């Protein structure tokens, strides 16, 4: 997942947090790092984006592109006003969003890299990168592990309503992001957040701690039950024995080329994907397994049985 050039300049592992708008992923990310020793640094890309918008050069360029209508009474960028111009299905809005991204995304990435580099020399054991558009920007290449925070739709919509957003606003913003199925499909770990208890926070903390214990260059140091502690949605069973064991055993039987765009820096550990297999995910696995060039030994106990 991470380029070799990035690995050579950064020694601290980075966990990227994925999830839907309103899934509580930011709260889970922050909470998981509380009182951990050695500490973990939580980077909020949205907060970094706010800082970038306050830079004079960026503000000047955006006013040139979108006029002074995007400025508030204090002379700073009004993010809500800017959002009306860049989120939506109109061709003008889509073109405006691309212009905005070309201005701010390189600046955000640069700041994130600086803070990751600082963490590597400041005693942090890991970095948690919370970025709503982690995949859309290509920032997944900064990460060694991707975790998807899931939740049910009703609770998610209640969270969003609490922000004062309409469902139309949600739809406009989600249209500019990867689909939820696509986000789940690239995650190494899926954790369900019930938005009521701390189960997701505990699951994320335990998963990262177990992952960090596995030394680089070793194969599947921890058992899947140690690595994939997961808070599940009621009524849904995670296919740990089916998926995690399959991936873990397949990785140990051959020199696996992971189905991602770049090699894993902490590559020896075959961290399993934990989720219920939907048709989409089953198809994704089948396609990517078909491109592996090494033989796979699949035994009967690793084959997931059909649901009754």
UniProtKB/TrEMBL annotation:
ATP binds at residues 22-27. GO terms for cellular component: cytoplasm. The keyword Kinase applies. GO terms for molecular function: ATP binding; dephospho-CoA kinase activity. Transmembrane segments: none annotated. Catalyzes the phosphorylation of the 3'-hydroxyl group of dephosphocoenzyme A to form coenzyme A. This is Dephospho-CoA kinase.
């Amino acid at each position: 997942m991470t380029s070799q050039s990035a690995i050579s300049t950064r020694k601290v592992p980075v966990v990227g947090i994925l999830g839907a708008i309103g899934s509580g992923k930011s709260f889970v990310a922050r909470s998981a790092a509380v009182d951990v020793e050695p500490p973990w640094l939580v980077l909020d890309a949205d907060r970094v984006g706010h800082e970038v918008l306050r830079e004079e050069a960026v503000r000047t360029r955006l006013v040139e592109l979108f006029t002074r209508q995007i400025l508030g009474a204090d002379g700073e960028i009004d993010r809500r006003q800017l959002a009306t111009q860049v989120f939506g299905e109109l061709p003008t809005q889509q073109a405006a969003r691309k212009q905005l991204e070309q201005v701010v995304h390189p600046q955000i990435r640069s700041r994130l890299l600086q803070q990751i580099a600082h963490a590597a020399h400041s005693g942090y054991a890991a970095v948690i990168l919370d970025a709503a558009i982690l995949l859309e920007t290509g920032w997944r290449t900064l990460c060694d592990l991707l975790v998807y925070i899931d939740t049910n739709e009703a609770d998610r919509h209640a969270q969003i309503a609490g922000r004062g957003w309409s469902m139309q606003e949600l739809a406009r913003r989600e249209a500019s992001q990867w689909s939820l199925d696509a986000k789940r499909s690239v995650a190494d770990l899926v954790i369900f957040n019930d938005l009521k208890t701390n189960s997701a926070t505990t699951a994320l903390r335990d998963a990262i701690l177990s992952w960090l214990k596995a030394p680089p260059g070793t194969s599947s140091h921890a058992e899947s039950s140690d690595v994939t502690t997961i808070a599940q949605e009621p009524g849904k069973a995670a296919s740990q024995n089916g998926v995690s064991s399959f991936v873990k055993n397949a990785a140990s039987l051959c020199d696996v080329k992971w189905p991602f765009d770049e090699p894993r820096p902490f590559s020896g550990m075959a961290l399993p994907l934990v989720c219920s297999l939907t048709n989409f995910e089953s198809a994704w696995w089948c396609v990517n397994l078909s491109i592996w060039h090494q033989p796979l030994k699949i035994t009967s106990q690793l084959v997931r049985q059909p649901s009754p």
